[in-house]
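Working notes for the structural subgroup meeting. M.R. asked for a predicted model of this chain before we commit to crystallization trials. I am recording the input and output together here so anyone reviewing the notebook later can reproduce the run.

Input as submitted:
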Amino acid sequence: MKRRELREHIFEILFRVEFMNEEDMKEQMELFFEDLAEARPEDVDYIKNKYMAVREKMPMIDIMIDEKSTGWKTSRMGKVELTILRLAVYEMLFDEDVPVTVAIN
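Returned structure, recorded in token form:
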């Protein structure tokens, strides 16, 4: 799978976090991957590992988002937008697979 496709699948799983408790998420992951027939084993591992990494950092990421947002807290944000923000913040700050570009002003 291409990186874009992998990220879309990570997003889809992260989005489910808003509607499921931890126990239900285990079942959701199993169902998700049953329906993902085109995924190679290494793709499944990549998606699972990224999901777990973002999930682990989510409380910290939510605090960062709350501190920087004006007039909006994570509790008021749309679930799609919040999931995109969480994934983006994780990739920018914590994901070593994402190349970092430094702007010099």
